[in-house]
Amino acid sequence: YQFELPVHVINRDGSETTNFIDCWKAGHFALEAKATDTPDGNDKPLRKAFGQVRNYASQLSGTPPPFLMVVDVPRTLIVWEGRNGDWGGFPAGRRIALATLHQRPDDIRLLQDILANPVARDPRGRAQQVSRATLDRCVRGHEVWRATRHQHVAGERRSRTPGSDRKNVAESAGAPPSPARMWRDARDTR
């Protein structure tokens, strides 16, 4: 962790300013903290803090952090998730009321992942796992089909009559399910 990480920002007029990210952990998050005295429902200071931390994080060299956070001490923590510097706008943030955080296990797990294992929240990793599982099922199905096709196809060809349903013949011959069917099955098992 690093507190007050210096960020060199090029201003519109071409001058350079050094600003600071309140709390930073490379590969994990950038956090901007505010202690507002505004009544609940006034998001203007939090919107400003989001714009600030988003701007600072995008100015850093290297890969941007997957999470941005704004904390309004002691009320609210707002979390934005994004890969490659795309965190969405202010409304995309997930609000976490700090006073009741201990009652919400999903929010606790989110914060644990942000602090210790942000890769666990990367949707690209989950998509790759599903794709790999589907590919493995296709290969296994094809191997079974190849091993049994000669036995079944010979018998089916002799008994098939003109106009019979080819789909039923293929299924009874041990053909693997269609790719669309395999994707549906993989999706339904998540």
Helix proportion: 40-55%
Largest sheet entry: 6 strands, mixed
Q: How many helices?
A: 5
- Could you list the spans in which at least 5 consecutive residues all have pLDDT below 50? none
Average pLDDT confidence is 78
**Range of strand content:** 15-25%
**Coarse shape:** elongated
Class per helix and strand makeup: alpha+beta
**Backbone CA Rg:** 27 Å
End-to-end distance = 35 Å
General description of the model:
By secondary structure, the protein is of the alpha+beta class. The chain is built from five helices and six strands; from the N terminus they run E-E-E-H-E-E-E-H-H-H-H. The chain has a six-stranded mixed β-sheet, with helices on both faces. Helix 3 packs across helix 5. The longest helix is centred in the C-terminal third of the chain and has 37 residues. It is elongated. It starts with a strand and ends with a helix. The model has no long low-confidence stretch (mean pLDDT 78).
Question: Quick summary of this structure?
Answer:
This protein is 43% helix and 22% strand. The chain has 190 residues and is of the alpha+beta class.
What tags apply to this protein structure?
elongated, 190 residues, 6-stranded mixed beta sheet, alpha+beta
Give a topology summary.
Layout: E1 2-10, E2 16-25, E3 29-34, H1 44-59, E4 67-72, E5 76-81, E6 94-97, H2 105-116, H3 123-159, H4 166-172, H5 179-188
Parallel strand pairs: 3-4
Antiparallel strand pairs: 1-2, 2-3, 4-5, 5-6
